[in-house]
From TrEMBL:
PANTHER family: ARAC-FAMILY TRANSCRIPTIONAL REGULATOR, HTH-TYPE TRANSCRIPTIONAL REGULATOR RV1931C. Keywords: Transcription, Transcription regulation. Residues 215-303 form the HTH araC/xylS-type domain. It comes from the Bacteria. This is AraC family transcriptional regulator.
Length: 303
C-alpha cells in the first residue's frame, strides 16, 4: 500500500488538493494500492473557497514508495501566505532523504523551498509567483511557463488544474502510460502536455490530438512499450497500411514515428527507475533494451 500524504495549510485551494486527490483515488478504484492521508498542524483547515476541511495532526509512518504533496493556498504573495512549522518541514526533508518523493502544486513550492528541497533543483509554480519564488530561493532554478517539473524526486507544478497533470505524470512513470490514460479517461479530462518541455511525460505531450486511429495505436504502445512492436503489427491493429499509419502518426504527434514514441516511453520509465536507485543496465533491461547502450544513445539524442 502506497500512501499519498497531503500537507494542508490554511487557505488551501480546493482544486490544488482535489485534482491530485481524485487522480490517486481513481487509480485506487482501478485496483492500485493507494490510500490518502490529509495532515495539518491543526485539525480544522479553512480552504480558500471557505469550505472547512478536517485533517489529522498525526503523521503516518512513511516509506520510499509514499508521496508527500503540498497543495497551494490563496495569498497575494508567497511571503504573505502561511508557512509550515518545524515538524512538517522536517517531515518533508526526512522523507526525501529517505528516498521518497515530494511534490507541490502552485504556492506549495514555497514549502519545499523552506525545507531546503529546491536548492540546486529545477522547479516551477504559478506564473504569478515565479519571480518571487526565484528571488526567495535563489539556489533554485525556476522553470517558467510549464505545467510541471521533476528533479531528483522533487516534483513541482504550476498551479490549480496543473496538479492533475502532475499526478497523472506520476502514475505514468510508476505504472505505465496506459494506466494514466485510463485514469484520465475515467475522470473525463483531456490528456494534457507541456508541449515543448521534456519534463512532461511522453504520453501527456503526444496525446492532445483528435486522430482516433493514432490514439488506438498509442494505447497499444502504452500497454506494451517494453515489447518489440513491429510497424506491421501496429498498422494491422489499426486496420491501416504501414505507410498510412506512419503518415497519420507523424501528423498527430508533431513528427514522431511509432518507434520514436515507444522509445520515449522506454526512456521516461528507465529514468524513473534510475532516479529510484536502479542501475542503468537493470533499468535498460526492464524497459525492453538489451543493454544500456541504446539507453545512453537515446538520452544523448534528447539532451
Amino acid at each position: 500500500m502506497s500512501r499519498i500524504v497531503f500537507l494542508l495549510l490554511p487557505g488551501v485551494h480546493l482544486l490544488d488538493l482535489a485534482g491530485p486527490a481524485q487522480v490517486f483515488t481513481t487509480a485506487a478504484d482501478l485496483g492500485l494500492p493507494y490510500t490518502l492521508d490529509h495532515i495539518a498542524e491543526q485539525e480544522l483547515v479553512t480552504s480558500a473557497q471557505g469550505l472547512p476541511l478536517v485533517a489529522s495532526r498525526h503523521w503516518p509512518e512513511l516509506d520510499p514508495s509514499d508521496l508527500i504533496m503540498v497543495p497551494g493556498w490563496r495569498a497575494p504573495t508567497l511571503r504573505a501566505g502561511p508557512e509550515p512549522g518545524p515538524e512538517p518541514l522536517e517531515r518533508l526533508r526526512a522523507h526525501h532523504t529517505g528516498g521518497g518523493t515530494v511534490a507541490s502544486v502552485c504556492a506549495g513550492a514555497a514549502a519545499l523551498g523552506l525545507a531546503g528541497l529546491l536548492d540546486g533543483r529545477r522547479c516551477t509554480t504559478h506564473h504569478d509567483l515565479q519571480d518571487e519564488l526565484a528571488a526567495r530561493f535563489p539556489r533554485a532554478t525556476v522553470v517558467r511557463d510549464v505545467l510541471f517539473t521533476t528533479d531528483d524526486r522533487v516534483v513541482t507544478s504550476a498551479g490549480i488544474a496543473s496538479g492533475i497533470d502532475l499526478a497523472l505524470h506520476l502514475l505514468s512513470v510508476r505504472h505505465g502510460p496506459a494506466l494514466a490514460a485510463q485514469v484520465a479517461r475515467n475522470m473525463v479530462v483531456y490528456i494534457r502536455r507541456n508541449g515543448h518541455e521534456p519534463q512532461a511525460g511522453a504520453m501527456l505531450r503526444h496525446r492532445s490530438h483528435l486522430d482516433d486511429t493514432v490514439h488506438r495505436v498509442q494505447s497499444l504502445i502504452d500497454a506494451r512499450f517494453t515489447e518489440p512492436l513491429p510497424l506491421g503489427v501496429l498498422a494491422a491493429s489499426a486496420g491501416v497500411s504501414e505507410r498510412t499509419l506512419t503518415r497519420l502518426f507523424g501528423r498527430a504527434t508533431g513528427g514522431l514515428t511509432p518507434l520514436r514514441y515507444q522509445q520515449a516511453l522506454r526512456l521516461e520509465r528507465a529514468e524513473h527507475l534510475i532516479s529510484h536507485g536502479a542501475t542503468r543496465e537493470s533499468a535498460a533491461r526492464e524497459v525492453g533494451f538489451d543493454d544500456a547502450r541504446m539507453l545512453r544513445r537515446l538520452r544523448a539524442r534528447t539532451s
